[in-house]
Design goal:
Helix content: 10-25%
CATH architecture of the largest domain: Beta Barrel
Mean pLDDT: 78
Strand order of the largest sheet: 1-5-2-4-3-6
Shape: elongated
CATH topology of the largest domain: Barwin-like endoglucanases
CATH superfamily of the largest domain: RlpA-like domain
Number of domains: 2
Largest sheet: 6 strands, mixed, barrel
Strand content: 35-45%
CATH class of the largest domain: Mainly Beta
Distance between the termini: 70 Å
Number of strands: 12
Low-confidence stretches: 7-28
C-alpha cells in the first residue's frame, strides 16, 4: 500500500510539473544580432494550429504577428521582407519550424496577409534582425537603395539577364513607390523582344500588384503592351 501511495504521489508531481511547463509565460523581447540575415522561402500556418501550444509554451494565435524559426531564441523580433512585392513587417519568434527542406521561417496567417502571400502559400523573403532603439542608434547608417523613375526602372529590370532581384522605382510627385520583377526570359516574336514582369505600387502603405508585358524593337526602349492588376 505504501508503495502504491508513493507511486501515486510521484505521478501527481510529474503531472503538476507538466502543467506548470505548459503555462509558462511567453519569453520577453530578446536583443537580436544586428548582423543576422537570411534569404529563403517563407510559408505560413493557421487554422489547424490555432489555439494549440507553441514550442515556448504559449497558445498559438494565427491573428498575431508571430513566427516559427528553427534556431532563433524565443522572443527574438525579426523583420521579414517579401522580396516579390517589397512588403515588410516585424514578427516575434515563439515557435519552432518550419521542418520542410528549403523553408527558413513559418509565419502566422495574419503575417502572410500583411506580406501579401496568403493565397500563394509560400514566397521568397529576407529575414533580418529587428533592431532595438539602442541598436539602431549604434548601428552605422545604411544608404537607402536608390530608386529611379518607373520608366527607367522598367528598362533596368527587363534588361537584366536571368532571374533578377526586385528593381526599386518611385514617383515622388504622386507619392508612389514599389519594385519591378521580371517573370520570364526575353522572347522574340514578330521582330520584337518581349518579356513579362510583375510591378508593385505602394501608396500610403497599401500595396497593389500588377502583371504585364513589355516589348522593344532593336535598341528602342521597352514599351508596355498590356498590364492588369492582380491584387490590392
Amino acid at each position: 500500500m505504501a508503495t502504491r501511495a508513493g507511486l501515486l504521489l510521484a505521478l501527481l508531481l510529474l503531472s503538476a510539473c507538466g502543467s506548470q511547463v505548459a503555462r509558462l509565460p511567453p519569453t520577453g523581447p530578446v536583443p537580436a544580432d544586428p548582423d543576422f540575415e537570411q534569404v529563403g522561402t517563407a510559408s505560413w500556418y493557421g487554422p489547424g494550429f490555432h489555439g494549440k501550444l507553441t514550442a515556448n509554451g504559449e497558445r498559438y494565435d494565427m491573428d498575431a504577428m508571430t513566427a516559427a524559426h528553427r534556431t532563433l531564441p524565443f522572443g527574438t523580433r525579426v523583420e521579414v521582407t517579401n522580396l516579390s512585392n517589397g512588403r515588410s513587417a516585424t514578427f516575434r519568434i515563439n515557435d519552432r519550424g518550419p521542418f520542410i527542406r528549403g523553408r527558413i521561417i513559418d509565419l502566422s496567417r495574419r503575417g502572410a496577409e500583411v506580406l501579401g502571400f496568403r493565397g500563394a502559400g509560400v514566397t521568397k523573403v529576407r529575414v533580418q534582425a529587428a533592431l532595438t532603439t539602442p541598436q539602431r542608434a549604434a548601428a552605422p547608417a545604411q544608404p537607402r537603395p536608390r530608386a529611379t523613375p518607373y520608366k527607367a526602372s522598367l528598362s533596368r529590370a527587363l534588361n537584366a539577364s536571368g532571374s533578377a532581384a526586385p528593381t526599386p522605382w518611385e514617383d515622388p510627385d504622386a507619392g508612389v513607390h514599389g519594385v519591378i520583377v521580371p517573370l520570364t526570359t526575353p522572347v522574340q516574336r514578330n521582330g520584337l523582344v518581349c518579356r513579362n514582369y510583375r510591378r508593385t505600387a505602394i501608396r500610403d502603405e497599401v500595396a497593389t500588384t500588377y502583371v504585364g508585358r513589355a516589348c522593344r524593337d532593336g535598341r528602342k526602349e521597352w514599351e508596355i503592351t498590356r498590364e492588369r492588376r492582380v491584387s490590392s
